[in-house]
């Protein structure tokens, strides 16, 4: 991994109220894809689980390749739902280039969840722990949340320009690198 010369930030839409699909690793459904319903409270729990320093990986594959970390998270209301967004500092120059060229265009969360089962649907009851975010490509796989994506990215200039950039691009004041 070659470190990026300048700070590179990516705004990611990770999750939202509604249905997600993804592999489940619990008895009876291990490895199968099933719908999971996320309510507003669970999205708020998830946002609280996106701690600063949470690792960002390239894909869900093993061995793990950490390419960055979460700087901050917040909620935004749009598309008639509560959305969980994060700001990630991407430190791997190859990954920065793939994001710039839109080869990495989606993301997926990695978390331990508690479910309530109702028929063929699992209701997310509780977010136990968020262990990471995986960047991905729609050319290779579909994200669990169909609208999950890289929303925007910024490559900051020289270190003394950080504050100016934050003001110019309108990032929330709580964001720090």
Quick structural gist:
With 177 residues, this protein is mostly beta strands.
The fraction of residues assigned to DSSP E strands is over 45%
Share of helical residues: 10-25%
State the major sheet.
9 strands, mixed
Mean pLDDT: 85
Number of domains: 1
The helix tally amounts to: 3
Whole-Å distance between the termini? 20 Å
**What is the N-to-C order of secondary-structure elements (H for helix, E for strand)?**
EEEHEEEHEEEH
What is the general shape? globular
Assign the structural class, choosing from mainly alpha, mainly beta, alpha/beta, alpha+beta, or little secondary structure.
mainly beta
Uncertain spans: 172-177
* Strand runs, count: 9
Rg estimate, integer Å: 16 Å
Describe the structure.
The chain is mainly beta. The chain has three helices and nine strands; from the N terminus they run E-E-E-H-E-E-E-H-E-E-E-H. It has one domain. Helices cover 15% and strands 51% of the residues. Strands 1, 2, 3, 4, 5, 6, 7, 8 and 9 form a nine-stranded mixed β-sheet that branches. Strand 7 (106-118) and strand 8 (121-136) form a beta hairpin. The longest helix has 10 residues, at 40-49. The radius of gyration is 16 Å and the shape is globular. The chain starts with a strand and ends in an 8-residue tail after the last helix. Mean pLDDT is 85; it is low at 172-177.
Topology:
Layout: E1 3-16, E2 18-23, E3 33-38, H1 40-49, E4 55-58, E5 66-78, E6 81-92, H2 93-100, E7 106-118, E8 121-136, E9 149-155, H3 162-169
